[in-house]
TrEMBL record:
Limits of the FDX-ACB domain: 520-613
Pfam families the record matches: BMT5-like, FDX-ACB
Principal location listed in the UniProt entry: mitochondrion
Domain of life according to the entry: Eukaryota
Compartmental location: Mitochondrion matrix
Protein name per the record: phenylalanine--tRNA ligase
GO MF: ATP binding; phenylalanine-tRNA ligase activity; rRNA (uridine-N3-)-methyltransferase activity
Recorded family membership: Belongs to the class-II aminoacyl-tRNA synthetase family.
Keywords (A to Z) from UniProt: Aminoacyl-tRNA synthetase, ATP-binding, Ligase, Mitochondrion, Nucleotide-binding, Protein biosynthesis, Transit peptide
GO CC annotation: mitochondrial matrix
EC number(s) stated in the UniProt entry for this protein: 6.1.1.20
Lineage: Eukaryota, Metazoa, Chordata, Craniata, Vertebrata
One GO BP annotation of this record: rRNA base methylation
Reaction(s) catalysed by this chain's protein: tRNA(Phe) + L-phenylalanine + ATP = L-phenylalanyl-tRNA(Phe) + AMP + diphosphate + H(+)
Length: 613
């Protein structure tokens, strides 16, 4: 490892810098705002400066932390760590001025290396985060996480600033005087660079129907999630690890055949019983994708699968009229049903299908517009289905218990519950599965503090028209993303899809670990929007949530109905929602959130036909 370069700003008597200068493999550059003459007037400063210079450190005076580019040439002086201990505008400056100081400081940190850290120590309560005990009211704090977010930084660690452990350190500078101040309960806030906001261009996919080459545009809300390859062989993503471990466990009890590599992405027609607002409608266009748009090569071989609705009348090998409506697959179940219809299976052999599926849904921490489904299909002799289901569930339980034990040492609660007597409210995954067909059992996984569990899987037997006299087909559908969240302690589904490499670094290939967030206490921004509904039309709340996802790039974390008003006399209806913007993995500043709010309001009028109040 090379020399670590450390920059210290706003030093008072240089005692903190002097304590660091002896660290092996570290080059220290210590600075202060005062001139050399003023700095030497602080008690003990001359001794500390002498010690710094004797050790080879640099000491620079009259350095303004908001104008670092004037003191260090950009591109020639990059620091691995920047320390700014107890920043203050001086004298009796209020919280507003100190916020401005921090904002200007964070905006001039080009001297920081790409993967460097900024350490800001604040007195107890100043930061305004839940780590402060007691915690000040937000308006009376320095709001350091929100201030840093405006400059593209996220809070990655917070730990106590233990002044007593720093040899020779003496705090000074209380109200610009040579006096110490209280550092009891002080916290060190460690900031790192956030990934930059991503701007995704429209994405088209190529496919073929018979002899015709066709293309379709991916819904904008899914552009960053199509073709991510989480289940591919070279992936270390936790969803693949869970899928591989489950498959390995099942293969010890049953012969197993994987059918996942070439499953069609599109379905023709519409699934019976499924609400149209819950599926992503696709329009096919003849010819190649427009050259101005990015084309997904990984999906170029996707073919159409006609199961839902009516098939086209003409021979698929000939020239076809292009049907108007297709849907991104909301489930792998139709592919399993096709295997059953064709009798393309061996009784007693597990067929394992896996891949991403796409469903429109409301915004919530565990509600996913895309997730990875693992579908296990088994044909067994009639009369043995109950015992086979129990074998499958016991095998899955054993695997999940071993996985969770490796993560945290505590076994999850895994239960098989009869669908007919299921007592708790269905989550979005289970509710959609219920639309696809009758369910016999729910598979639930619980961890503290919710041991009762969340539904992560459903168990069915094939519908009557697919049954034979001798055989019964059993299928188990598992939501791998929900399993990854529960097993690894991930509270927000969006983290599974982050582009920040720090996520996957926590999961070496074949290992599951308890996830440690690299973005702590992200700031949130609330926006109330009220509007009149078009006369005589029902409001599609799922479409409203989907639009919020699209416009914000999944930065909306919550949408809550605040008011439902009907105007006397006219009968016109007005709704008011509170929309909360918050990122789980990157910096989201107040200015960017405000721009999202304005864009959302504009798109609501254009796409939903509402009238803003």
């Amino acid at each position: 490892m090379g020399l670590r370069r450390v920059l210290l700003l706003g030093e008072g008597n240089f005692s903190f810098a002097a304590a660091l200068c002896g660290a092996r493999g570290t080059h220290v550059v210590a600075t202060c705002y005062e001139s050399e003459e003023e700095a030497l007037g602080a008690a003990g400063a001359a001794r500390s400066i002498r010690r710094l210079r004797d050790s080879g450190a640099e000491v620079v005076f009259s350095v303004d932390c908001t104008k670092l580019q004037e003191h260090f040439l950009l591109g020639t002086r990059e620091f691995d760590r920047v320390y700014f201990n107890f920043p203050h505008c001086g004298r009796k400056a209020g919280v507003g001025k100190n916020r401005q100081l921090l904002a200007r400081f964070f905006h001039c940190t080009e001297v920081l290396a790409q993967e460097g850290e900024i350490h800001v120590a604040l007195c107890n309560g100043q930061g305004g985060t839940p780590a402060d005990q007691p915690r000040r009211e937000w308006h009376n704090s320095w709001q350091i996480v929100a201030v840093a977010a405006g400059a593209g930084f996220i809070l990655s660690h917070v730990h106590p600033f233990k002044a007593e452990t720093i040899e020779g350190y003496k705090c000074t500078g209380y109200r610009s005087q040579d006096k110490s101040f209280c550092v009891e309960g002080a916290l060190n806030h460690v900031f790192t660079r956030s990934t930059a906001p991503l701007c995704f261009t429209p994405l088209s996919c190529k496919t073929q129907l018979g002899s015709q080459k066709l293309s379709f545009q991916v819904p904008q809300v899914l552009v960053d999630k199509i073709n991510r390859g989480f289940l591919e062989e070279n992936s270390s993503h936790p969803v693949r690890t869970i899928k591989e471990k489950l498959s390995a466990g099942l293969s010890q009890a049953f012969p197993l055949h994987n059918t996942s590599s070439c499953l069609p992405l599109l379905h023709h027609g519409h699934p019976d019983g499924v609400c149209h607002s819950n599926t992503f409608c696709i329009t096919l266009t003849p010819g190649e994708a427009p050259s101005a748009e990015k084309t997904s090569q990984g999906l170029a071989d996707a073919v159409l699968f006609s199961h839902f609705g009516q098939d086209t009348d003409k021979d698929v090998q000939g020239e076809l009229p292009v049907p108007q409506r297709f849907y991104l697959r909301p489930s792998l179940l139709p592919h399993a049903q096709a295997i059953i219809k064709q009798r393309a299976f061996s009784p007693g052999t597990l067929q394992v299908l896996s891949g991403p599926v796409f469903r429109k849904c409301r915004i919530a921490p565990h509600s996913m517009p895309v997730f990875h489904e693992m579908l296990v299909v088994l044909a067994v002799s009639r009369g043995t289905e109950d015992s086979c289901i129990q074998m499958l569930v016991d095998n899955i339980k054993t695997t999940l218990n071993s996985l969770h034990q490796g993560v945290s040492g505590v076994k999850p609660t895994i239960s098989l519950q009869e669908a007919a007597s299921f007592g708790t409210e269905l989550n979005d995954f289970a509710a959609f599965e219920w639309q696809l067909g009758e369910i016999q059992h729910f598979l639930c996984v619980g961890t503290e503090p919710e041991p009762s569990g969340s539904c992560v899987g459903v168990i069915r037997t094939a519908p009557d028209e697919l049954k034979s006299r001798e055989l019964v087909v059993v299928s188990v559908s598992l939501n791998l993303d929900l399993l990854a969240m529960l097993l690894c302690g991930i509270s927000d589904w969006r983290m599974l899809w982050t582009w920040d490499r720090r996520f996957l670094r926590q999961f070496p290939e074949g290992e599951l670990r308890l996830f440690q967030s690299f973005s702590l206490y992200p700031p949130s921004y609330e926006h109330d929007v009220s509007f009149w509904l078009p006369d005589g039309e029902e409001f599609d709340e799922v479409a409203f949530h989907t639009l919020a996802r699209e416009v914000s790039g999944e930065m909306v974390v919550s949408i809550q109905l605040r008011d439902n008003f009907q105007q006397p006399g006219t009968g016109r209806r007005s709704l008011c929602y509170r929309v909360t913007f918050q990122s789980c993995d990157r910096a989201l500043g107040c200015r960017e959130a405000a721009e999202m709010q304005l864009h959302f309001r504009e798109e609501m009028q254009q796409q939903l036909g509402v009238t803003l109040r």
